Prior knowledge:
Layout: E1 4-8, H1 12-24, E2 28-32, H2 35-44, E3 49-52, H3 61-68, E4 76-80, H4 85-94, E5 98-101, H5 106-118, E6 129-132, E7 135-138, E8 143-146, E9 149-151, H6 155-166, E10 171-173, H7 174-182, H8 190-204, E11 214-217, E12 221-224
Parallel strand pairs: 1-2, 1-3, 3-4, 4-5
Antiparallel strand pairs: 6-7, 7-8, 8-9, 10-12, 11-12
Helix pairs in contact: 2-3, 6-8
Amino acid sequence: MTPRILIVDDDASIRRLLAMTLAFAGFMTEGASTAKEGLKKGADEHFHLILLDLGLPDMSGVKFLERYREDEQTPVIVVSAIHDEADKIAALNAGADDYVTKPFNTDELIARINANLRRVPPAPETSPILIVKEMRMDISNRIVSIEDELIKLTPKEFKLLRVFMENQGKALTHAWLLKAIWGVGYQHETHYLRVFINQLRQKIETDPARPKWIMTETGIGYRFIG
Length: 226
C-alpha cells in the first residue's frame, strides 16, 4: 500500500514543493492550508503520517497537536521555519514525533519520514513482552536480555527502559520523561534523568561513550533507536 501523507501548511508553495518531492519518493499526498482543515481531513481520512507547520493562520501548531492527539496516534513530523528550542520542545511535548526546520534537506526529510513509518507502534499495556531487535523485555517477570544475556536493572532503570522501548524512534523531551518516570513536579529535575541515563547506558551499551540504543537529542531529550 502506498503511504498517504497529509501536508498541513498555509504556504501553497511549500505544499507544492513537498507534494512534488514526496510524489517522486513514492508517496501520495493531500494538502490542508489551515489547522481546522487539517484536523477535519485527519479525522475523516486515513493517513500514514502528517507533516505539520507550526505557524498556521487559525491555530498554533502546538494546539493542533494537542487537539489531534486526543483521538489519533498517526505519526506527526513538524516542518517549520521556527528554530527556537522552546518551540521545538513544546511541539514534542504536545505529541510531535519529530521536528525538521526549514529550509530542509529533502533527503533528510524523506529519511525521517521513512524512519517514522517503519517505527513499530508502542506495545499495549497488556503486552507481557517487548522486543526491539536483539533486546527483549519480559514485563511480567521483569527480565531484560540482549542477545540472550541477562541485564540486571534497578526498578527505576527498568521503568525508564520500558518507556524507551514503548516509544522506539520518538524524540522524548526531558520534561516528558521526568513526568513519565517520576511523576508530576519533577519536570525540571534533569539531573535525575542524566544520572539514570548514564547508569542505563553502562548496562545496555557495548560502548557507553558511543551509544547505539539511547541517543542524545541535544537541548531536547533522548531517542531510543532500535
